[in-house]
Write a structure and sequence with these properties.
Order of helices and strands: EEHHHHE
Shape: elongated
Number of helices: 4
Largest sheet: 3 strands, antiparallel
Strand order of the largest sheet: 1-2-3
Number of strands: 3
Distance between the termini: 23 Å
Length: 174
Amino acid sequence: EGRVPHRAHLPQFRCRPRRWASFWCVQTQSVDCRSDRLSMSIRTIQINKKSFLRFLLGGGTATMLHYLVIAVAVYLARISFTTGSATGYVLSMFYNYWANSRFTFNGDGNHTKNLPRFLVISLMGLAINQSILVVGIYFNLPPIVGQLAATVVVVLWNYFLNAMWTFAIRNRKL
């Protein structure tokens, strides 16, 4: 049975904030039970004002695409609002990945790791979007009000989880 050192004996790590932004650092640790070694890595979470503003810009264009698809689906194709919203969300999701990986978080280009993570977060965001929309319709709110509320919630959901998991700078060992 391996012993894990007390937290006081663990090395300390501090992020050096860049001039234009401050980053959050999370120190993660894991124990390899076979070798009784404590391995530590640092994950720099890209949550800052600059990345959030870039996220709003890139996400804003994706949201415009989403709402455009809703309008076409509802008013021209006579599809239900919830189906139009889901279709618009899925179509804008792919543009959103491109914008986030290139523009918002300056991703490392590792699409085999980042894209599946982004899809998991986005599909959960789709479930949140649809749930809020259906609840709004259930309470006889105009569908656009439910969609606006869903957009606010999903924007926050997508930003924080993508910053902490999908596009976090990782794999730096101590």
